[in-house]
Amino acid sequence: xxxxxxxxxxxxxxxxxxxxxxxxxxxxxxxxxxxxxxxxxxxxxxxxxxxxxxxxxxxxxxxxxxxxxxxxxxxxxxxxxxxxxxxxxxxxxxxxxxxxxxxxxxxxxxxxxxxxxxxxxxxxxxxxxxxxxxxxxxxxxxxxxxxxxxxxxxxxxxxxxxxxxxxxxxxxxxxxxxxxxxxxxxxxxxxxxxxxxxxxxxxxxxxxxxxxxxxxxxxxxxxxxxxxxxxxxxxxxxxxxxxxxxxxxxxxxxxxxxxxxxxxxxxxxxxxxxxxxxxxxxxxxxxxxxxxxxxxxxxxxxxxxxxxxxxxxxxxxxxxxxxxxxxxxxxxxxxxxxxxxxxxxxxxxxxxxxxxxxxxxxxxxxxxxxxxxxxxxxxxxxxxxxxxxxxxxxxxxxxxxxxxxxxxxxxxxxxxxxxxxxxxxxxxxxxxxxxxxxxxxxxxxxxxxxxx
Length: 452
Description:
Blueprint: H1 15-29, H2 41-48, H3 52-64, E1 68-71, E2 75-78, H4 99-102, E3 105-106, H5 119-130, H6 133-136, H7 146-160, E4 169-172, H8 175-186, E5 190-194, H9 199-207, E6 211-215, E7 217-218, E8 221-222, H10 224-230, E9 234-237, H11 251-264, E10 267-271, H12 287-290, E11 296-301, E12 313-316, H13 322-328, H14 338-349, H15 352-378, E13 385-387, E14 392-397, H16 399-411, E15 414-415, E16 417-421, E17 424-430, H17 439-451
Parallel strand pairs: 3-15, 5-6, 5-9, 9-10, 10-11
Antiparallel strand pairs: 1-2, 4-12, 7-8, 11-12, 13-14, 14-17, 16-17
């Protein structure tokens, strides 16, 4: 019997592998058709002059991969038929060009100033963890490494007035994964959010089947009256972010929202993104600490304090959700790197984080003042609003011109990113990733792009 589809070479490769490759190729090209009966192991070995072990090994691998099926007392049958022809060669995608190679000035919101980053100290802490082999060869704690949670409890208490022990803190890879976990624990149905919106949080709520209720705000932030009338049982707030008055949410409004939570049994989700980084005035303590931990789930992160690439955030759960979390904790996988968690724990406990925080407040105060001055000189007729903790100036753009303005900026070597909320599209001109001395030249280049 002829087996034209077989190619058995004398090149040293195991014979069972050569037989497997030939049979697999014959099935994929249609030389062996679906449902066709294969020769028995005994007959194939006799016809080919191969050992039964060789043929059986090839058949078994093809069975495992779904190309053949074995039917007792009947033999082997082709299970997988001819494969569809490929659609054609894929067009090669252009290689991504590093930002440094494409832009002279980076005003993007997703970067930190590389010159100011504590890279040497951070590398030392990571290296110290990597040298502890007994630690890095095991899985981490579902809730987050104990050493990090203890450091966070002390740090958040000093820097933000957060009232929490290590047992109430949950660590994750940023705020969004932690928000998913919180929504699953809270079991709520309707979430109120500032009318300007926050896309990442809204997406989590919708993914979790929670209705999103955009509510109006006034000069002090989210309206307590609108919140009471909405029927929401969750309220997502960022009290450290700038409100219409240009400052953080005042203490009086924070107490009003806390009263809503206390009287209705609702939960306030306090996203304290960069809350400790306020630099024009002393930061207002977190709402979570003002409430003694009741009715508030607190979210904190380190993307602008340390490095954006270190994706570690933490959440302080309110007492009402702790029993349910402890019941479910072992079913939740830890999303943050154990190595980075332990490095961050050492970084915080050694006092480096608080020293860095003091430096950054001075640096960002200087950067924001210089950028404000440059923007007012180059764009005297355009309105810019400082988002203090987000570390950028925002300016509204017409939707139809937004992309063209970004492209024109890029041609002048300036990287600009746009964002969108319910108010429309705006450019976010960040000073977090650009060195202080380069700000004037960057704004001059942006002026040539936008004013020309």
